[in-house]
Design a protein that fits this description.
- The protein is 46% helix and 21% strand.
- With 98 residues, the protein is α+β, with helices and mostly antiparallel strands.
- A four-stranded antiparallel sheet has the order 1-2-4-3.
- Strand 1 and strand 2 form a beta hairpin.
- The longest helix is centred in the last third of the chain and has 22 residues.
- The mean pLDDT is 93.
Length: 98
Amino acid sequence: ADWLDARPGWQLAARPACNILCFRVTLPGLDETQTNALNERIRQELLEEGRFYIVKTQLRGKTYLRVTLTNPFTRIGDLEDMALDLEAKALRRTQETS
């Protein structure tokens, strides 16, 4: 959570109190509908590649991506890799629509 919170373009739904982290990519110039759609699209791309598995949820009308950490072998680097992958997908998607 701290790593994401320190990076521009990320928003946490709340500070995690347990093993569940809800977050989303937010990019300048996108309205709420576009931001929701972007997060849904990049999640789907991530799932189709098969390297990571995350779910989505709706909180206060906003789409968030959610990861539940249960595997004791998960490393911070794994989560950073996933976030960087999502970030790259988001930037690529917005460049394609510009």
